[in-house]
Specification:
The chain has helices spanning 12-16, 19-28, 43-48, 65-78, 90-98, 131-145, 162-176, 200-209, 225-237, 251-259, 270-277, 317-320, 328-339; strands at 3-7, 33-38, 54-57, 82-85, 103-107, 118-120, 183-188, 214-220, 242-246, 263-267, 282-285, 306-309. It is α/β, with parallel strands linked by helices. The longest helix is centred in the middle third of the chain and has 15 residues, at 131-145.
Length: 343
């Protein structure tokens, strides 16, 4: 049995986009033991992933010196056969090199690539394909090297059983005082410090214009509760009642709640990618700059269950990132026939 370390130790959204890679690896090589190296804030999600056998905590490059030294010792002691760095930095590259892992695979990227003995040219800066596909290309390269038949993964990448979802829906219905028999439209206006998102007024105009018999549920990450409450007030002024939900019971409970949604609307954030991993229909808003386009950060929904919008093309970077250039009336015209089948 091969012991494989997979490194994806950055943000929540990035980690969720690695789930097809974990699925491909485990389904193609069922007897392998997969260990994921992740930061503290994605540990709970990693433990939820059905294709990860073990989770190791990364203290991060800015973490405690002793903790970083201990990590290297733990990696050595684990005696991994291979390391696949889906996310390559000099810090990550040195980790697997210091751990003396015999097979070290990563994208051929800048200085860091000298610490690997297997490299794949990807040119991710060109954003020619989705991030999750770049990840999968690394897994394909590894499996091809091992002469293993590749099993292509399929959605959903995360699911909860019917009883769990029924209990979660009942809990939320009571907690938020909402009708459990209606469709629930989740809206996440926060950005989590990543890509730009719509303004609260744009979200107000959008939600107010979507037709259907549904209930609006506003979600918020840590520190975003005030923004969600402000959106709730703006919607109320337009005659739209919205429930306010914050993920105060942790990411696993939040994921169960997202699984109860009929549709999830957000910018390019971690919660959007959690929803996609569950194959909840997603509506995403993205900048149009090359490194952040709807193509590059396409969620991992099944075909037809994701729709994306971004500002019109422009030469200057400021305009590409200016989400105010997204015309909500135009969005609603395109969105309404798509979302009608889910609400």
């Amino acid at each position: 049995m091969k012991k494989i370390l997979v490194v994806r130790n950055d943000k929540i959204g990035d980690f969720m986009l690695a789930w097809p890679s974990f699925a491909m690896l485990k389904q193609s090589l069922p007897d392998c033991r997969i260990t994921a190296l992740v930061p503290n804030y994605t540990v709970a999600l990693a433990e939820l992933c059905p294709w990860i056998d073990e989770v190791m905590l990364d203290p991060s490059k800015d973490g405690d010196k002793y903790a970083k030294q201990q990590l290297v010792e733990n990696l050595k002691a684990a005696k991994f056969d291979a390391a696949i760095n889906l996310f390559s930095t000099t810090y990550n590259a040195k980790l697997v090199w210091k751990a003396k892992i015999p097979y070290r695979l990563a994208p051929a990227t800048k200085f860091a690539q000298i610490f690997y003995n297997k490299r794949i040219k990807q040119k991710r800066s060109q954003s020619a394909k989705p991030e999750y596909q770049y990840n999968l290309d690394l897994i394909r390269a590894f499996l091809s090297d091992q002469q293993i038949d590749i099993v292509e993964p399929t959605t959903p990448y995360l699911s909860f059983d019917a009883q769990e979802l029924s209990q979660q829906r009942t809990k939320l219905s009571k907690q938020l005082a909402i009708d459990s028999d209606k469709a629930w439209l989740f809206v996440h206006a926060g950005s989590g410090g990543s890509a730009n998102n719509l303004s609260l007024q744009q979200y107000t105009d959008l939600v107010s214009a979507i037709e259907g018999d549904y209930i609006v549920v506003l979600t918020a990450g840590p520190g975003e509760e005030e923004k969600a409450a402000e959106l709730q007030a703006l919607l109320a002024a337009e005659g739209v009642q919205a429930a306010l939900y914050s993920k105060n019971d942790g990411l696993v409970d939040f994921s169960r709640s997202i699984a109860c949604a009929s549709c999830f609307i957000a910018g390019s954030t971690g919660p959007l990618h959690i929803a996609a991993t569950l194959d909840v229909p997603t509506v995403g808003f993205f900048p149009s700059k090359r490194s952040a386009t709807p193509l590059r950060w396409r969620p991992i929904n099944s075909e037809g269950k994701h729709i994306a919008f971004c500002p019109p093309q422009a030469e200057d970077k400021a305009s590409q990132e200016d989400m105010a250039r997204i015309d909500i009336a135009t969005v609603v015209k395109q969105l309404q026939p798509w979302i009608a089948s889910y609400l």
